[in-house]
Prior knowledge:
30% of the residues lie in helices and 23% in strands. By secondary structure, the chain is of the alpha/beta class. It has a domain at 2-169: TIM Barrel. Helix 2 crosses helix 3.
Amino acid sequence: MQLTLATQAANEPEIFASLQGEGPSAGRPVAFLRLSRCNLACVWCDTAYTWHFEGDARPHRGGETFDRGANQLKLEAREVADRIAALGQDRLVITGGEPLLQAGALAEMLQHLPDIAVEIETNGTVAAPPRLDVRIDQFNVSPKLAHSGNPAELALLPERLDAYAADPRAFFKFVIAEPTDVEEVLALQERYRFRPGHVFLMAEGTDSETLRAREAWLAPLCLRHGFRLSDRLHIHLYGDTRGT
Length: 244
């Protein structure tokens, strides 16, 4: 089976080693695999090149659309596994786009990586089938709040959030642009009873200045409500660039 990957340069798949920048594994050396395609459309998405292709009328604040041929690459699952193994890391982060849209091919790929720990970064709207689920060590679930521009009936599916909330492997990361966004997280916390210590709030932003300004008011809100604060380490280290 083939996987549809994002590219970091012409004909170069976005497979790379770096430090995890967000969430519970922040600072850990990992291999990254970025897949293409998404079933949601966040207006502030910082990887719009994985889904906002020419002809896609869904809004994005950058206004740019991307050439699909230049930003997508198909590779056999075994070749992707070999490239990941060559990076020499013991942990893999699979991100997107929405990776679980390619669950079948991912399950095949991971058969060739039996000794690597696996994190999936997901928007929380898609279930991993059993063949893939058994290989996942950690779910980094990022449900999309109203300011993402996605309607709740598409982005916040009760049956999926119930399932992730009950899964001890799942951590939740909410992107916060304004203090009022935290009220929406509190309502979701009350409804789904996320596990203590499993909820991160992360400022929306793609430059250090914006992140620091928002973290100045976000940190006290985390302290008040018992949430964990996630920085975006890779932005401070490398900027908003592909392959980092």
